[in-house]
């Protein structure tokens, strides 16, 4: 259980913390410092590096989550907060998969071809999805840490 929980928490920290840093701190700074071409190149490069870590989280979080559920005796013994965590977690994974295979793919192509308007549109779509996923991630962390107290 200790190994599963440790990996689970580390994966969540990387993913949710990375989204927080990007959305809350880097996004406003990049917008104030860089013109669109440089900003799009920055984000494309950042996402290429960050998404490697997100893929690890996307794999580890469900694996370790189900591992811990199995160690506890199965879904029958999992609290309401665990079921909610699974739901929000899988929704986050689906949103990331869409982000990665649609707007991020368009962002990379736009940066390669220097199509800055298309890149701006793709980046805006990514921003919206990351904003939703960040909110879901924070709610999931709140539920994970306090859910058993909220739901009994």
UniProtKB/TrEMBL annotation:
Record field: transmembrane: 6-29, 50-70, 82-101, 130-151
Pfam family, one: CopD
Alphabetized UniProt keyword annotations: Membrane, Transmembrane, Transmembrane helix
Domain Copper resistance protein D: 46-142
The UniProt record lists the keyword Chloroplast: no
Leader sequence residues: none
CC per GO annotation: membrane
Protein name: Phosphoribosylcarboxyaminoimidazole (NCAIR) mutase
């Amino acid at each position: 259980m200790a190994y599963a929980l440790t990996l689970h928490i580390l994966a969540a920290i990387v993913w949710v913390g990375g989204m927080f840093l990007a959305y809350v701190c880097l996004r406003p700074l990049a917008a104030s410092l860089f013109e669109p071409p440089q900003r799009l190149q920055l984000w494309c490069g950042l996402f290429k590096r960050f998404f490697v870590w997100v893929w690890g989280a996307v794999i580890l979080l469900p694996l370790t989550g189900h591992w811990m559920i199995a160690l506890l005796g199965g879904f029958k013994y999992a609290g309401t907060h665990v079921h909610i965590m699974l739901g929000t977690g899988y929704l986050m994974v689906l949103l990331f998969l869409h982000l990665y295979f649609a707007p991020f793919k368009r962002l990379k192509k736009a940066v390669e071809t220097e199509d800055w308007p298309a890149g701006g549109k793709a980046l805006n779509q990514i921003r919206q999805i990351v904003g939703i996923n960040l909110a879901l991630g924070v709610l999931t962390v709140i539920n994970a840490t306090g859910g058993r107290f909220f739901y009994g």
